[in-house]
UniProtKB/TrEMBL annotation:
PROSITE patterns: PROKAR_LIPOPROTEIN (PS51257). This is MexC family multidrug efflux RND transporter periplasmic adaptor subunit. SUPFAM superfamilies: HlyD-like secretion proteins. GO terms for biological process: response to antibiotic. Belongs to the membrane fusion protein (MFP) (TC 8.A.1) family.
């Protein structure tokens, strides 16, 4: 029913055009039959890979915040801002003197606990044979045994305190948690850090590879699925992507990582993420890019110049073709995707049809014409 309505609308529009072109000047019929020269292109089929350009933003693959894990005064900054750093590389040095003192104190506490343990072990060893002959009371033996257990626990606690002190001493050397590019230093020498909170000192971002996050209208995604399901398109390499920076010739190939499973209710868009190599560091976080995503392929696509497609008042598309006896015919068509300066025609044209692309002004269906190949088509034949 929708096609009949569209065809009827186009027919009515064509009749209106024809009536508008008829004047009351009373020119001789022979003059009206003079063939008008028009530019035409002969329709041919060609393989077509459909792509769409979508806006996106660059995001780093990994981001690490460099934070102070112990309190102290920063005594040295050991990196160049904006440089690439390796995981484990020393970035800041916090004054280690107080932490070294803490380690020494913990070592002393451990030695004291070990001495108490040695004493408790010796006491139990002495009491054990004596309690059997009742030279020592059972109560004294039980007390000695409890003191031994307490001494062992004290040693374990002192060992843990020493390990914590050594860890904190290690944290005084603030190192890069990942490899990547480091930004500006957020603290300077002499700053007190880690006092009550883990102070942010710098950020490192891994920029090779990078992610490109972009969105696609859910309506376009559904149309693509319908075209693939109906056989108008065949699925190509749906994982291959390319990326470009607006205003430059920069191009980089990548791959699609995933398509989000939900649609943003506010925008009607679905989110996608691609991954791109970035060895030269040209792609920076937050940069606006254009992502070219494949949408499928048509092995026998029909493409016509954009200027050949006209629209009726209700938006239906038609083209003017050279028909029988070299006269103009209006042909309703269904347009697909725009590829450069050409429309893909999914219905309404066949290979060999001659589509009028030049001399369209005032041209009416039924007019006698003299078709001339366009310069582009002549060049393609040479």
């Amino acid at each position: 029913m929708g096609r009949l309505r569209a065809a009827g609308t186009i027919s009515a529009w064509v009749v209106a055009m024809a009536l508008a072109g008829c004047g009351a000047s009373g020119e001789p019929e022979a003059a009206a039959e003079q063939a008008r020269p028009v530019d035409v292109v002969a329709v041919t089929t060609e393989p077509l890979v459909l792509t769409t350009e979508l806006p996106g933003r660059i995001e780093p693959v990994r981001v690490a915040e460099v934070r102070a894990r112990v309190a102290g005064i920063v005594v040295q900054k050991r990196f160049e801002e904006g440089a690439d750093v390796k995981a484990g590389e020393l970035l800041f040095q916090i004054d280690p003197a107080p932490l070294k003192a803490t380690v020494s104190r913990a070592e002393g506490e451990l030695a004291r606990a070990e001495a108490s343990l040695f004493e408790a072990q010796a006491r139990v060893k002495r009491y054990k044979p004596l309690v059997k002959i009742e030279a020592v009371s059972q109560q004294d033996f039980d007390t000695a045994t409890a003191d031994l257990r307490s001494a062992k626990a004290a040693v374990r606690s002192a060992q843990a305190d020493l390990e914590t002190a050594r860890l904190n001493l290690g944290y005084a050397s603030v190192k890069a948690p990942i490899s990547g590019r480091i930004g500006r230093a957020l603290v300077t020498e002499g700053a007190l850090v880690g006092q009550g909170e883990t102070t942010l000192m710098a950020r490192i971002q891994q920029l090779d590879p990078v992610y490109a996050d972009f969105t696609q209208p859910v309506a376009d995604a559904l149309r693509l699925r319908e075209a693939l399901k109906g056989g108008q398109l065949s699925a190509g390499d749906s994982q291959a992507l390319s990326i470009g920076i607006e205003g430059t010739d920069y191009q980089r190939q990548g791959e699609l990582l995933f398509t989000d499973v939900s649609v943003d209710p506010g925008t009607g868009q679905v989110s996608l993420r691609g991954k791109f190599a970035n060895p030269d560091g040209m792609l920076l976080p937050g940069m606006y890019v254009r992502v070219s995503a494949p949408q499928g392929s048509d092995a026998q696509a029909i493409l016509v110049p954009q200027r050949a497609v006209q629209r009726s008042p209700d938006g239906s598309a038609l083209v003017l073709v050279v028909g029988a006896d070299e006269r103009v015919e209006a042909r309703p068509v269904h347009t697909g995707a725009m590829q450069g300066s050409r429309w893909q025609i999914s219905q309404g044209l066949a290979s060999g049809d001659r589509v009028i692309v030049g001399g369209l002004t005032g041209l009416q269906p039924g007019t006698k014409v003299e078709p001339r190949p366009t310069q582009e088509q002549q060049a393609s034949r040479q």
